[in-house]
Amino acid sequence: MSQPSHSLRQIPVVVLAGFLGSGKTTLLNHLLHRSGGSRIGAVVNDFGAIEIDAMAVAGALGDSTVSLGNGCLCCAVDVSELDLYLERLARPSASIDVIVIEASGLAEPQELVRMVLASEQPGIVYGGLVEVVDAAEFDDTRVKHPEIDRHLALADLVVVNKLDRAPDAACVLGLVRSLADRAAVVPATYGRIDPEFLFDCRPGEERIGQLSFDDLHEHGKHGESGEHGHADHLHTAYDSLSFSSEVPLDPRRLMEFLDSRPEGLYRIKGYVDFGAYDAHNRYAVHAVGRFLRFYPEPWTPGDARLTQLVLIGSGIDASALGKELEACNSDAPHTADEHGMWGVLRYVQDPEEDLVEPPA
């Protein structure tokens, strides 16, 4: 969907975590190859040498930024330098579309998430905590690293990797779902998840401007066939819903919907028209897992006064969610009471305040 020039473009920052051997780097490689032309900035929270796209990246501290042939920037850094690198990657001149922080196998993901949320860089937005699990070794991992249960409870998206090697795949998936708190749980082999879970892929051909609302919906359709083929989506199926309304939404009803959003609904993005509750602004909405933020943007004379939302998840009931959103339409779009927006405004960031952690 197009964004007006007065809107600050914010780049999602995704934290990719998981214990040693879970398949984080394999998943990152998959994203690099299936980015749809999007430019990925990868921050690697580790020391030593790693392999990305069969190229050795020296894991030195300091100003160790390299440019890879596929358009990815990869930085091996100490976490204390994270904000510096986020600022660098968020510069418009870098043309980065998404930043992925690959955490060390022994890192505490909650700390990295807190650092992203506390960043003072206006050009970024928290894009979620993705926890990668080795399905074949899950029981042993829980014995060696009991903190994995806590990590799963914090995650916004859980990728159950190496599912083809697990003796009882269904049992592992059931156990992970019971440990993950409202997170979308996606089965995978070889780290193959659809990048659309994490970021909006650019179209393969060059084009001017942002993806339209229709582009986003078409690209997110389940079972899409295209240049990558069915094999790439075999274990990464997701569901999407596009919602559009010419009738303004009631802010209280929308907040009730957002507060009760179901397990597996990983992302919500788009714009909301609250009608008479705020006639001057539309509200960009960004939700990932349990994280929610609204961004008021002034209407311009050429804007169509619409609500346009895209919902992406795994195992969601798109039809039921669509009906719930329709029920958020305002019965009296020309009237509003002074307290109706309070619930929404709780999730509008005050520029004078630091970011807080996602609501539990």
Helix-strand blueprint:
Layout: E1 11-17, H1 24-33, E2 40-44, E3 50-52, E4 55-57, E5 65-67, E6 73-76, H2 82-90, E7 98-102, H3 109-117, E8 124-134, H4 138-144, H5 148-154, E9 157-161, H6 169-179, E10 184-187, H7 213-219, E11 239-245, H8 251-259, E12 265-272, E13 281-288, E14 291-298, E15 307-313, H9 318-326, H10 342-345
Parallel strand pairs: 1-7, 1-8, 2-6, 2-7, 8-9, 9-10
Antiparallel strand pairs: 3-4, 5-6, 11-15, 12-13, 12-15, 13-14
> Residue ranges: pLDDT <50 for 5 or more in a row?
1-7, 47-71, 204-236, 351-360
Question: Helix coverage percent of residues?
Answer: 10-25%
**Strand composition percent:** 15-25%
Overall structural class, as computed from helix and strand content, comes to alpha/beta
**Distance between the first and last residues' Cα:** 30 Å
Largest sheet: 8 strands, mixed
Number of β-strand runs = 15
Side-by-side strand order of the widest sheet = 5-6-2-7-1-8-9-10
Q: Can you count the helices?
A: 10
Based on CA inertia axes, which overall geometry fits? globular
Residue-averaged pLDDT:
78
Rg, Cα atoms, Å: 20 Å
The string of secondary-structure elements, in order, is EHEEEEEHEHEHHEHEHEHEEEEHH
